[in-house]
Amino acid sequence: MILSDVIELNPRLSLKKGSLAPFIEMAALPILGKHIPEIGERDSIGSGAKFQNGDTLVARITPCLENGKGGYVSGLPHGAIGQGSTEFIVFRAKHPDDEQFAYYLSRLPEFRSFAERGMEGTSGRQRVTWQTLADFEIFPLSATQRRELGEILSALDDKIELNRQMNETLEAMARAVFVDWFVDFGPTRRQMAGETDPVKIMGNAFPAAKAQTLAPLFPATLNEAGLPEGWRLGRLDDWASVVTKTTKPNEVDQNTHYIGLEHMPRRSIALSQWETAAKVTSNKSAFERGQILFGKLRPYFHKVGIAPFDGICSTDIIVVDGLNPELRAFVATIVSTDDFVSYTNQSSSGTKMPRTSWKLMREYPLARADKELVFAFSQLIQPMHDKVLQSLIENQSLAEMRDLLLPKLMYGEISLKAAAHG
Questions:
Q1: What is the pTM (predicted TM-score) of this model?
Q2: Largest CB tally within 10 Å, which of 48, 59, 241, 393?
Q3: From CA 201, how far away is CA 187, in angstroms rounded?
Q4: CATH number at residue 129
């Protein structure tokens, strides 16, 4: 049995030129993950991959193929046709029951190695053709076995996705509280409107006991500058500093965790992907668990995350910390807001490869509140960030289990019933 017996490659689909359609770019594809978290929209230009829900996308160009970029399409509107890079190969199961199997086949290490051996072209621009992939030999599993394999592994990936969505919700909550307190001055404005109930002063967002503690921390009026009384206009570096510790390749243990820009997701502080320092050949920046990593190259990509461990990172990443550890949640929330990322993008230098810098970042204007209030915010948000980091550990364990089971199930080394019951 070969791949093309069960999978159609690059199925024929068409979009009217100039029509608006869902779009997935290469940067949105996860590395060794299943679900694609970001789907945009773009006018169709005719060329590029076309796909629908249930299809699998596989990157065919170096280094994306070697990095494991790919994903299962599930977030398009019902019946919609999506479009993407010409560097995608689309897998479509010939039978609907094989959709999950098709995705996991694309993740099989032996398949990836087969694809890499089939790459052609000049160094740095090598690609594999869909015709080459069509001949990959598949272990002869029955239709029932293929369906059950997909169901078992999907249960693990679905749990990983639920954790990702929970993290997304926690991040959104933290940013919403920050904007209400320190940008819109909601508690102060509600008091100026005559509100005296602590719960309502806090926007009905907190239980009564917590609201009674927080509400008195906010001034009841705005000053002539439009800030809460007693506050003044400050900058990011009133609360944060840059970490400039560098390390040389010969000083790093090969098992040290390494994070590059390619590992950082967009619009998420949850850093779930990394590799070891085994391939590091140049100086890198060192960071500690809990510090904040900010992608300075093309800042509009919105790559900001909280380090889940001690490690090293690309020098295209700025390591930021609170002036003390109790301020980390406050600083992480600031630098992950859309407004801050927009500020760094607008002030960055360079046309094709714009970069920001700490010199620019530190000057970000920020209402300087009373320290007691800032610390209260950090104490409120830190447990949310801790939960994000805890879910990363759980997801890592789930991913390791999935990756261990995949080849064993694909080659019939363990029974499906045994895998389903642990």
A1: 0.85
A2: 59
A3: 5
A4: 3.90.220.20
